[in-house]
Amino acid sequence: MTVDVNALVNAAKRAMERSYCPYSKFRVGAAVLTKDGAVITGGNVENASYGGTICAERSAVVRAVAEGYTEFRAIAIAGATAEPISPCGICRQFLVEFGNIQVIMASTVSNKRIETTLNKLLPQSFGPKSLTDIADEQKIK
Prior knowledge:
This protein has five helices and five strands, in the order H-E-E-H-E-H-E-E-H-H. The chain is of the alpha+beta class. It has a single domain (5-138), classed as Cytidine Deaminase, domain 2, CATH 3.40.140.10. It has a five-stranded mixed sheet with strand order 2-1-3-4-5. The longest helix has 13 residues, at 5-17. The radius of gyration is 16 Å and the shape is globular. The model has no long low-confidence stretch (mean pLDDT 93). Residues 3-129 form the CMP/dCMP-type deaminase domain. Zn(2+) binds at residues 55, 88, 91. Its EC number is 3.5.4.5.
């Protein structure tokens, strides 16, 4: 099954329009493609206590997990930026939990896109395998 990049980016754009960002006015949308072919979206949700803000990428994944999905093939992120919008460091780390998925970064201003993988955005990452390796090492001692 190939990834329909256009459809995924369009879903992220629609999610961007539904984001909640009364403070920064910086709208971001994300659409995650599950292994089963479902597309789940999310937008950034700001909070007056800025630390409570959640990014669009995490919003989409949390929604997908709540709907029973934990295996993903791709995520598209859309923002009204001149260049394609990139996931922040927290989102990169959060996404690593679910494997080396395809990442499509899109600009709604220039319509530019960058396609890459999570491993390229966060090389040498700490993820689920890191914890398995630690557990295995502790058994050896």
